[in-house]
Amino acid sequence: MSIETQKSLAEVQSFEGKYPKQIWSLFFSEMWERFCFYGMRGMLVFFMITQLNFGEKEANLQYGATQAFVYAFTFIGGLFADKILGFRKSLFWGGLLMIVGSVLLAIDTHQFFFFGLAFIIIGTGFFKPNISTMVGELYKDGDSRRDAGFSLFYAGINLGAFLGGYICVAIGKGYMLSSVIDEAHRWNVAFGLAAIGMLISLINFHFTKRSLGPIGLQPGHPDAIVKTSALPKWAEYAVYIGTLLLVPLIQVMVSKTEYTDYFMYTIGPLTLLYLFYEMTKVEKVERHKLIAALVFILFSIVFWGIYEQSGGSLSIFAAKNLNDSVLGGAFHLDPNGVNNSGGAFFIILLAPLFGLMWIWLSKRKLEPNTIIKFGLGFVFLGLGFYVLYATRFFAIDGMTSLDIFTVALLVITVGELCLSPIGLSIMTKLSPARLQGIMMGMWFLASAYGQYVAGLIGANMAEAREGDSLMDKLVTYTEGYKQLGLYSLIAGAILIVLSPYIKKLMHGVN
Ligand code: GLN
């Protein structure tokens, strides 16, 4: 056994206690990557409007395009990890690209705006799905502690999101450290901080990866989990060079939002075709499991389409229709700040409790299966949107309660915790080892569609509002949220009705 793989897979997977210790390495790497990603993402719209003089609609479309591309690239990142790079090298390559992108933005945000973003988009594609897949590989098939592990990992995601999402934009806007950073360099420092976050992520991974045993090794490595013949070195270099050649293309595509439409019309059907092709090569039981995974993926598009109003229409709602008093006026907070980081805050608070709750329930044979958890995810999402609707009953002159809005975020977060970490977990349970990366990529591709759909829904709601009074606007938006709440409840009900059929396809996987 080589130096790289100190432990065998069986040794890694037969850990005692609630969590494998390697999960902390992945937790911190993902936390810092999300710090970089959400730091960057949290600055985009504001920067485009105030520094690049984009109109609001244009900025929103641009933002949606970036998000859709980011998540769409996770499919490609997953594919190349499975076939050529392995999870570890993919993660490293993706991290390096994200650092380059953030450094470019830090050097000259105006000049390198789309160029830097293109690096970050591709880099996230190589990083994001593959670290999640490695979490899954820490567990044996059937280990009931897996969902709890993903809940913990999800807390790491949101710790990074919470910190990066708040700190970077606050530095850029001059809310933080304004006495030490002169105005002309605030945005450079803010984007530079995202690069530092990513650097910490990679350093952490580099020094802890040996504890992963064979997890994430390149296909063809003698100790790799899936045994294949060694790959020629040029294949790996071709991926690196191909990625770099893709950067200018992505730069152009993301800067013209109409290309996003063409891209989204093409990438989904193509990946489905590819998946169907892969399905012909596996046995019947594995095929059934992949079909079940696909059902979860399709439902998750609906979930993210509704949920991701947060980055679009809800941020406009927060800016225009929410007051700033929290806990009945005990203190005051920026409603946009609450909209950006409130969900992440609740997740950090609740995820460990959810993790322990799943373990507790499973010991008593009461843990709901994944389909029911997904159904509950939709139910809570729907209820959360009904709470958003209810804000209209607390409005005075078109301004309504930040407290009630925060309750809505809490309810939505409960829904997210029933679906998102469980989704990551179920992808790793239902996919055969050699398709793990691709399936995780498809899971995130659904998020790309969700982001895309969310943008369209949000734009639709915004269009009806030109020239309306604040109260009219509040009524229009909350009416929209009521509709979305209803769709979500319907989706949850359909899932629960379909559950016996999906369960059959899952062949005992829970
Ligand atoms: N907030 C989660 C993350 O960043 C989930 C995002 C998603 O899948 N849309 O990982």
TrEMBL record:
Annotated coiled-coil segments of the chain: none
Major subcellular location class: membrane
The way it spans or sits in the membrane comes to: Multi-pass membrane protein
Q: Which CDD domains match?
A: MFS_DtpA_like
Q: Where are the transmembrane segments?
A: 35-55, 61-81, 90-107, 113-131, 152-175, 187-207, 237-254, 260-277, 289-307, 343-362, 374-392, 404-426, 438-462, 484-502
Q: Which Gene3D superfamilies does the entry mention?
A: MFS general substrate transporter like domains
GO cellular component annotations of the record? plasma membrane
Q: What's one GO MF term for it?
A: peptide transmembrane transporter activity
| PANTHER family assigned | PROTON-DEPENDENT OLIGOPEPTIDE FAMILY TRANSPORT PROTEIN, RESISTANCE PROTEIN MDTM, PUTATIVE-RELATED-RELATED
Name of the protein in its database record: Amino acid transporter
Q: Which organism is it from?
A: Sphingobacterium paucimobilis HER1398
